[in-house]
Amino acid sequence: MILIKKCVNKFYIVYNLNKKNLFLLTLVLFFAAEKRLESQNSQIDSIIKDEKTKSKRLNTQKKEQENQNSPEEINTENLSDIINIERVKNFHLKYNYSSEAKPDPFKPPTSKEGKKSIKIQITSSLQKFDIEELKLVGIWNIGKNKNKALVMTPDEEGVICKVNDPIGKKGAVIHEITDNKISIRKFKLTKEGSRIYSDEYLILGGKEEEKNKDDIIVITPE
After folding, report:
1. Rounded distance between C-alpha atoms, residue 206 and residue 111, angstroms
2. Where are the domains of the chain?
3. What is the CATH number assigned to the segment(s) 131-219?
4. For the whole model, what pTM was predicted?
5. 80-138 pLDDT, tens per residue?
């Protein structure tokens, strides 16, 4: 409106228009300004509409791209039809636990009272001495491959013994009596529960025979 007023004043001064012509000029300028304003508003609306359309198109493209990148949901009920899965006929495995040569898992590794020694009942004079102190002085047959032996102790006591009789301080037993020697079986119990056997020999009229390493036998608990 200020611009129209300036234009009217200029025309009035320059051309010395009368009031009627001045009024007509004012109307013409007013309608021209209104048309120009409508044209500008139309352009602005068109720009805003284009921006909205462009933004909507970008959002649509973004959603499509996200859908392409996301994994497709698979119906697990028909998974066996999509993938060839071989059916397992028997998937149950039989397992038997063996405690052979294994410590008791419910037993503490150490005890407050410490290790307890095994008390061996003394039933023969041969249990009072070590095997190295004993001497085999006689063997005789009592029939059907059964022999007895006479063993001399350090205090000159003769003791008659047979198979399975105890001998020595450590719980050994007489395992076999042959024509010229007796076999003495000693045992040791390991911390795993296994029993280790080893044989030593007393020779008739001689000293103890040295232990043979090949004679060691290991028997594990059942």
Report:
1. 44
2. 2-59, 131-219
3. 2.30.30.830
4. 0.41
5. 555 555 665 555 667 676 665 566 677 766 555 555 555 667 788 899 999 999 999 99
